[in-house]
Amino acid sequence: MRRIGIDVGGTNTDAVLIQDDAVVAGVKTPTTDDVTSGILNALKDLLSGLESGPGQIDAVMIGTTHFTNAVVQRRDLKPVAAIRIGLPASASLPPFVDWPDDLAEIVRGRVFMIEGGHEYDGRPLVDFDSETMRAAAQEIAVSDITSVGIASVFSPLTGECEEAAAEILREVCPDIDITLSHDLGRIGLLERENATLLNACIIDLARRTTRAFTEALHQSGIEAPLYMTQNDGTVMRAEFAEEFPIYSFASGPTNSMRGAAFLTGLNDAVVVDVGGTTTDVGVLQAGFPREANNVVEIGGVRTLFRMPDLLSVGLGGGSIIGPDGTAIGPVSVGHRITSEALVFGGETLTATDVAVASGLIDLGDSAAVGSIGQTLQKAAITRIAEMVDEAVDRMKIDAKPVPLIAVGGGAFLVPDELPGVSEVLQVEHRGVANAVGAAIAQVSGEVDQVFSEMGRSASIEAATKLAKQRTIQAGADPESLSVVEVEDLPLSYVPGDALRVRVRVVGDTAPNQ
Amino acid sequence: MVDSREIKEDELTPLSTGAWILGAGGGGSPYYSYLNMREMYKAGKRVTLIDPMTLGDDDLVAVISSMGAPLVGQERLRDPEFATKPVRMMEEYLGRKFDAVMALEIGGGNALQPLMVAAVTGLPVVDADSMGRAFPEAQMTSFAIGDLQMYPLCLADIRDNETIVARAASWKWMERISRKICTEVGSTAATCKAPRSGKEVKDWGILYTTTRAIELGRAVENARAAHEDPVQAALDHEGGALLFRGKITDIDRRATEGFLRGSATIDGLDNDSGSVFRLEFQNEFAIGTRDGVPVAMVPEIICVMDTLSGEAIGTETLRYGQRVSVIALPAPPILTSERGLQNVGPRAFGYDMEFESVFPDGASV
To answer: Which among A287, B216, B273, B348 would be 20 to 30 A from B46, CA to CA?
Structure first.
């Protein structure tokens, strides 16, 4: 099995080639504004370094922080029309009610609240008001809105109203993007609606980005299926991923943690990923990122997605250092580090310059940082160590010393010793751990169907068996399967003791695939 | 406390956090009530909290709750105008205006229900409730334990269906009749329970529970901010006990007959590794067994918290794979009295066992 893993970050695009259980090669190149040429450069660097040529590539997996960055930095987001079907219920809490004001201002294109929706037992709440829906569609048609999110009360039970609304929309506005909340699952109207609207506001960016990935792969001459990595460390075919970018939101940190586990062989550790602008600290438990609690906020928006529990601090290789060395970041030169840092001929004092001056790493022109005084160096290095220490301490759940794996382009900033840490591991390919994580992404199998007249435990058992089969069919090693989600919803409106069961199973790719 | 004071905006989150813990898994997620309150505070509304002992004996107090299965509350969200509807119905029916509002239960979203009504009507909120936690049924209140009158009851549905239960033969009849109506309108309804006189509240209410919830919430939030263990902070604040830590491996849950019923299974982690904990619930957690042996039961407060964040988890928000801590908190003394146990002890929930306290040496609340 030979797979290429690519991580497209805000600063760098990294690529690795993995054969079976070993990293064959890894490269780091700057991310470009058009994304495509950055990936092409990375692939060219990666493959040109191979003595035996590229050979057969079985799959290419891409992870990216593009979508989450777009939301966090409030850029490339499209205004969205939110359609809530559920009046007269829930009127006081309209769509966007719990969004941060600045984000809502960008994304809240139009809000329509329409009568309809269902009861918990499948009866209609009130009749769906298709006339008002049609009027809304006509208003959207003459506006500049290109994407719509639709959420109906109790749609995880029956998507009927959302489908009916989508049909009217497609009739009136044939080219519009539509995200339906029941495709994103889960009881919890507000949280499901939030996820739907987030998805809707980045669907255009996701499509452009995913197509740029596909185009880059095509131009590179690699004939292999393209996958996008998801929040839970599994992959999804690119053509499906472009419709549901919300599933790829946290894939960057997940990949770097899974990559750290792969590179060190450790399953339980703290992972410190130092990028260009921020440092993400997460915790590996049994080889997987520890998940955040019940409700996860993306860019300040509450959703019900499973995401790794992360702490981000404004420390990176490009962090700008204040004149006395004690003020570090959060402002960073980002991907302009290769022209703005002192060691690269620029005029800005960055964390990387201090690291070169103190001999932590050999990079660029070390003579350019010869003038940085000892006092400033010491102050900056001490402050950096404090920042890492604080973050690690906050993420640990008990006082027991744990190993720490330093990864990312700025991993050299992590001190050799820290309180509460048994050892600091700096391993080969640490700088491209996220691309490694993408390359070793798992495959998943899901079942979401209605079982009748079987009873609950037999239904769940049947669904689990089927999900496991599908995971193995997707290429998983049967020995590595684990059930990550089981959910059942009684459908009391369907005769015959019907139960909607959702089971998700993940597994490592079988080595002989 | 002082006789009356304004509830500050920065008390709304601690109240939600504390109420969610005291809810024993029920009362509905306070998040939606909190959002409604935040929006109303933004619009300039303010709510006054009054000391129950300052009520005149003849003052008339509205007892407020949203009734139904908590799962439904996640899709049909709370609404202040709608919450106020049964209060107006009751005033019209009685031909008399209320002097104050209070919570039926201090657990979950229902702790904030009277605040929403107060923000709409301008009435003050009494710092008290009738459970000191949340319970599923009408007869499970301190007012029922005190054998006070259980009618009339006003119940509103979002579709303009209004019902008044003018009389009921007993608290249990009131429960049965009102539950049927509630189930028919989708297992969620805004209610105004039998009105109480100021004297009844002072004699039989569970007093100062709004303040207690705010203080508990603040203790948990402070611990979280200081990166200390928020679960321990809740235990310390309430004199509670940690029962189990583990990972949820099964949830069997049904919205049925107007309740959310079911069970959750938790596989032990750390010190509890190798053991299995099972929780049974009817809106609220009723009983907890460890490896088949009952270790906690109603009326003591069984609460499930996210092990890391200390966020309470309701019976409707339990999910496969969550890492949780199960804790028990002491119940208000009136609930564990002989008459109290008849209404809210394990037998009242259909478990054929004597009440055994998690706190055998006595606990003080």
So the answer is: B216
